[in-house]
Design brief:
alpha/beta, Glutaredoxin, five-stranded mixed sheet
Length: 288
């Protein structure tokens, strides 16, 4: 059977016909769209549709960190807190309703607590006996009578030696009035202190009168007012070369009090403990 072949012009005509048909269909579609949108009118303008922006990805949900676990309490602490709470509740119940049973329950529990505390005290005492560094009877001033006597004697010797060394460039100012009975009672103590410990006592008379035991007493030249000496007898520790003057005390003092106070105010931390910064004063001149 022979294949029938169309001439080339005929093929071209068929292609053109199919293209015209497609154009006609497109025109009909456009006409249909126009008549269905005739409400827009002849003159209209529509904003172009905004391009869809890419939305940023939602952040991942942050899971809150778990709070750090609290260290567990020791079982002894838990037991102690439970016992303390039980004792308090039992006491409060007995106070609010003081029946025989409630009071007995509280007293029995309190007796157990006292027994525990007594046992703790016994153990602590035995530990102190075996550990000298933890024994309070060996720290500072002893409590035993014989040990106390030895301690005071040793302390007296040490302080007397330090005051004798201090007396090389320090003196004691003794402010008095000749009509003051307390000054007359205190003067012999200062005279004996001067002879025993080797530190000079300079007596200064506020009213210009004499004082037994201090024939070379000096009249006040205004230093009593500068030091605000409002009460006599008064004692000050003075260093003539520097003019530093430190109060020791007012009123009648014993020898042990003088030793202790002078040792304190002349110690390495004495200036830090002064209520006011020490100043320089003009020292009184000896009477002719």
């Amino acid at each position: 059977m022979k294949r029938f072949a169309f001439p080339i012009p005929l093929r071209l005509a068929l292609v053109l016909a199919s293209m015209l048909g497609a154009s006609a269909a497109s025109a009909q579609d456009a006409a249909a769209r126009y008549w269905s949108d005739r409400w827009r009118g002849w003159h209209f303008y529509e904003d172009p549709m905004p391009e869809e922006r890419e939305r940023p990805p939602l952040p991942d949900k942050v899971v809150p960190a778990a709070p750090p676990a609290l260290p567990s309490k020791a079982p002894e602490l838990v037991e102690f807190e439970r016992l303390q709470k039980t004792l308090e509740d039992t006491r409060n119940i007995a106070i609010m309703r003081p029946t025989e049973a409630n009071v007995r329950r509280y007293m029995e529990l309190e007796s157990q607590v006292v027994a525990r505390a007594s046992y703790f005290a016994d153990v602590a005492q035995r530990v102190a006996w075996a550990t000298p560094a933890l024994d309070p009877t060996l720290q500072g001033r002893p409590v035993n009578a014989k040990a106390l006597a030895v301690f005071e004697q040793t302390e007296l010797v040490d302080r007397s030696r330090s005051i004798a060394e201090l007396g090389k460039d320090h003196v004691l100012f003794f402010f008095y009035r000749s009509d003051c009975p307390y000054c007359h009672a205190f003067a012999p103590t200062l005279a004996a202190f001067q002879a025993r410990h080797g530190i000079q006592v300079v007596a200064i008379s506020i009213d210009g009168g004499p004082m037994p035991g201090f024939p070379n007493a000096l009249p006040d030249n205004g230093i009593a007012t500068t030091l605000k000496v409002a009460q006599v007898p008064a004692v000050f520790l003075a260093q003539p070369f520097t003019g530093k003057i430190t109060p020791i005390g007012f009123g009648v003092l014993s020898e042990s009090q003088l030793l202790e106070r002078i040792a304190v105010v002349s110690g390495p931390q004495a200036e830090a403990m002064l209520p006011e910064t020490m100043q320089r004063f003009a020292l009184p001149q000896e009477a002719p």
